[in-house]
Amino acid sequence: MADSEIVRDEILDTEEMKKLFVGGIVKDATDEEFKEFFETQAGGAVTDSVIIRKDNEKKNHFGFVTLENSELIDNLLLKRDDLTFKGRKLDVNRAVPKSNTSEGAQSKTKKLFVANVPKTGCSDDDLKEYFEKRHPKEFGTIESVQLIKVKDKEGNKTEENKGFGFVMVSSEDMADKMAIQHATFEFCGRKIELKKSSPPGGEGGRGGRGGRGRGARGGGQFGGYGGGYGGYGGYGAGQWDYSGGYGGGYDYYGGYGGGYGGYGGGYGQQQAPRGKGGRGQRYTPY
What we know:
Helices cover about 15% and strands about 25% of the residues. It is of the alpha+beta class and about 290 residues long. It has a domain at about 5-95: Alpha-Beta Plaits, CATH 3.30.70.330. It has a 5-stranded antiparallel beta sheet with strand order 8-9-7-11-10. A hairpin with a 2-residue loop joins strand 10 (about 185) and strand 11 (about 190-195).
């Protein structure tokens, strides 16, 4: 698909699509050095940046960088292996917005779960084409779309959708981006939802609290998959407790909505429980 055919969604101009989470920042780094490093590496303006400094024995800090457009984030993530700041390789990922409270929002996966799909008039190919028009291939590809079908009395698949399905993409970075960009979108006459996916029952251990998710019950809205699309997780949902796992929003430093105004006196008040799971934790604690 030619670049001229790419559709650029308005959400790409929002702050939530332009924010980067950065881990592994050495303790002696200054705010000025941090900002200058990312302006040089990204090749564009840094509109906001902050290092979250904690008084503890850990070797490194973490922080956030907001760039002037979402495409700079895409390009920066392609050169992740080259992002060494003051002798330390940084851990960089697209930041998960405070508003994304779904279980599994911080999980490391290439699989997404799509819900509220109309029963008819929407095919796998239709949905795949929708996503492909919005994602240049140099940043990742849509590997497959599978909408789950209703079965007849003999157990044979019909053409009718159950209302949910799965999207496989080529990279975890692309899954991170799509889960924000397409959290809700209008398509085929419906408001469709997209989230990161996990197995039915949500075995714990991917950061946060671990624990089994609500999905263990089954019998939910969409054919029993994990108790309905709202409860297919089990990853835990913290608030940027970087010491115990990648958390669930920007609240760690006092409120994303109003910038960093609450940072000085508030960050650390909303820590999540330390991550208990050891399998596939989203970001390694420092």
